[in-house]
Amino acid sequence: MEILSAVEACTDPIEQRIAKRLSSLRAEHGWSLEALSEKTGISRASLSRLERSELSPTAAMLGRLCSAFGWTLSRLMADAEAKPANLVLAASQTDWTDPESGYRRRAVSPPTPGLRGELVEVRIPAGATVRFETAPVHGLEHHLWMLDGRLRLEVDGHEFDLRAGDCLRYLLTGPTRFQSVGRREARYVVAMVQP
Fold first, then answer.
1. Could you tell me the CA-to-CA distances from 13 to 9, 20, 21, 73, 158 in Å, in that order?
2. Domains along the chain?
3. Alpha-carbon torsion (84, 87, 89, 93), positive or negative
4. Is the whole model's pTM more than 0.70, yes or no?
5. Lowest mean pLDDT, pick from 73-87, 108-122, 138-152
6. What ranges make up the beta strands (E) of 90-128?
7. Which of 61, 91, 88 is nearest to 76 (CA)?
8. Are the C-beta atoms of 31 and 48 separated by less than 8 Å?
9. What is the C-alpha separation between 174 and 134, in angstroms, rounded?
10. Residue 191: which residues within 8 A CB-CB, separation 6 or more?
11. Does the pLDDT at position 158 exceed 90?
């Protein structure tokens, strides 16, 4: 059932705020740790440690949690921040790194109340793979634009090889796998629009 290897305790303030927000989301849904564990496949002990900021979450773990709550990862990161602003300065854009794969995600334009789109920059180290078992929001519209490197992307059982300048448009309805192929990191931007 466990999907997570042991990683160090959260020391990054954004991870601490994400942990706190995940705890409040679980409470808002009225779910016990056991119920959330059943929905996500993450052990009760790991969920408890995450909510106490004793465990750094991986991308796969956050993907499963966001899917259970019907949220995107960007929404979770933005919600963990203070109040949203119309101008998102580069210095204030939330940057998060998956401790397991080195996958880096920067919320360039996080979701905001009243707006349905968001913009995320992603960097995946050469040779690394990131998987999400379910869509966080069924029918989430993605426009993935490759900036550098090569990416092998599997969406709902279809595989695509992308290079710098390529753009792939799709609706997210199931599992995805992102693999950086080649000798340098894959860097891309994803524009997401809520259904």
1. 12, 11, 12, 16, 37
2. 13-78 (1.10.260.40), 84-193 (2.60.120.10)
3. positive
4. no
5. 73-87
6. 95-97, 104-109, 117-124
7. 61
8. no
9. 5
10. 117, 118, 119, 142, 143, 145
11. yes
